[in-house]
């Protein structure tokens, strides 16, 4: 909810702070930059302080950022507020994943990881409906003070009920020193499976993230002629589809661990195809096509979670935290680049930056990131499979598997 709250307020923020598109994208770019930069330090802090303390600290930090945003009237305070949200966000997600790993057996971890991500996506509904209603009713200050209060309430709830590990579970080993941390990061990155997770997270996550986090509502309103209410409602479809797709992806990953990359490539391919069709049609696009666009964007969130499963299965226990942190950087680094690039293109073209044609041009920046991620996936997958073959695990080509099933 905190992460996506600025997405429904994009046009309001542009008016409140008299911000050009590039400046507006800078809010989210800084938020994501802070988030991505803190992934590895947070992994070290997680080993030292435990998930419960990290999640509480993250919740309170995000609440402080929302409160500061509520009272800000100028760009400097507003930017500082979103930086605080990025810091708190960084503290939270990989800490929650460590709780999942500690409390559930390995066979159930892929499904529970998907469900964890989906529960988090429900916060986007809070942004798209009640927060948007407060924003366009009582106003900016009431909306973001309410978000801050909810953040404090959840931090208190975590403090009351969450525990790092089940009763009787062995204590974790001592936190590694700086040299061990650096060595672990290097070893994690050298692992082809970690790089496969990194590129997977990048290729699947950024399109939906940028759409939900900042530019989706402005695009649907100014670029496609929707009302603000219609655009916010359409964003809830993104969450609803994710709620359905997440468990399906989780079960597929658990049952067919050697075919995870096929699912990833399908998600990326569908996203590229539908975005291409939308951008080729002169706006406004048919409502049904925009609905299909949101549906395929929703698949990116569950698809990105497969990247964490690569980190878990290709790394030993003592390196999984570092590997998860590396994977998590992929999607968020791509998201901040695309969010900023869209803002720059909008500011350089069109009528004030928010015309339909400006948005058509701006969204094309995604294709370079998709190309980079796909190359990374194919290269890392080939190296990972080569290493698996040396260990006695051979992954037959998918066409051979399908042909064999057809014959039987």
Structure notes:
It contains 16 helices and no strands. With about 400 residues, it is mainly alpha-helical. Helix 6 (about 110-135) runs antiparallel to helix 10 (about 230-255). It is globular. The model has no long low-confidence stretch (mean pLDDT about 85).
Question: Would you spell out the secondary-structure blueprint of this structure?
Answer:
Blueprint lengths: L9 H7 L4 H17 L1 H11 L1 H21 L3 H29 L5 H27 L4 H22 L16 H13 L1 H32 L4 H28 L4 H21 L6 H28 L5 H29 L7 H7 L3 H25 L7 H10 L1
Protein name: MFS transporter
Pfam families: MFS_1 (PF07690)
Membrane topology: Multi-pass membrane protein
Query: What proportion of the residues is helical, as a percent range?
Result: over 70%
Q: Indicate the overall shape.
A: globular
Sheet/helix structural class? mainly alpha
The CA-CA distance between the termini, in Å, is: 49 Å
Percentage beta strand: under 5%
**CATH level-4 homologous superfamily:** MFS general substrate transporter like domains
Give the ordered list of helices and strands.
HHHHHHHHHHHHHHHH
């Amino acid at each position: 909810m905190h992460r996506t709250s600025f997405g429904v307020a994009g046009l309001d923020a542009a008016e409140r702070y008299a911000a050009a598109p590039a400046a507006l994208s800078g809010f989210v770019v800084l938020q994501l930059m802070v988030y991505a930069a803190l992934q590895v330090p947070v992994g070290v802090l997680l080993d030292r302080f435990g998930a419960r303390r990290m999640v509480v600290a993250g919740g309170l930090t995000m609440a402080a950022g929302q409160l500061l945003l509520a009272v800000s009237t100028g760009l400097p305070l507003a930017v500082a507020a979103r930086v605080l949200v990025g810091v708190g966000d960084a503290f939270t997600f990989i800490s929650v994943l460590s709780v999942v790993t500690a409390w559930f057996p390995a066979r159930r971890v892929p499904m529970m990881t998907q469900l964890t991500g989906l529960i988090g996506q429900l916060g986007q509904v809070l942004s798209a409906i009640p927060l948007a209603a407060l924003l366009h009713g009582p106003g900016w200050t009431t909306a973001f003070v309410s978000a801050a209060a909810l953040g404090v309430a959840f931090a208190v709830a975590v403090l009351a009920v969450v525990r790092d590990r089940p009763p009787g579970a062995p204590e974790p080993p001592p936190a590694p020193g700086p040299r061990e941390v650096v060595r672990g990061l290097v070893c994690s990155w050298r692992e082809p499976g970690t790089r496969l997770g990194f590129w997977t997270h990048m290729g699947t996550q950024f399109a939906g993230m940028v759409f939900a986090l900042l530019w989706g509502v402005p695009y649907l309103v100014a670029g496609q002629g929707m009302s603000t209410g219609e655009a916010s409602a359409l964003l809830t479809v993104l969450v609803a589809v994710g709620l359905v797709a997440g468990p399906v992806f989780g079960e597929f990953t658990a049952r067919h661990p050697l075919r995870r990359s096929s699912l990833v490539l399908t998600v990326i391919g569908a996203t590229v195809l539908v975005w291409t069709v939308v951008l080729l049609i002169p706006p406004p696009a048919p409502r049904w096509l925009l609905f299909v666009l949101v549906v395929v964007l929703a698949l990116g969130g569950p698809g990105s979670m497969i990247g964490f499963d690569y980190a878990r299965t290709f790394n030993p226990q003592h390196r999984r935290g570092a590997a998860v942190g590396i994977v998590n950087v992929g999607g968020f680094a791509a998201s901040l680049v695309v969010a900023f690039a869209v803002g720059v293109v909008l500011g350089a073209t069109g009528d004030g930056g928010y015309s339909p044609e400006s948005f058509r041009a701006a969204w094309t920046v995604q294709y370079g990131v998709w190309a980079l991620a796909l190359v990374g996936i194919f290269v890392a997958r080939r190296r990972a499979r080569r290493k698996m073959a040396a260990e006695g695990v051979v992954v037959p080509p998918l066409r051979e598997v399908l042909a064999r099933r057809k014959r039987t």
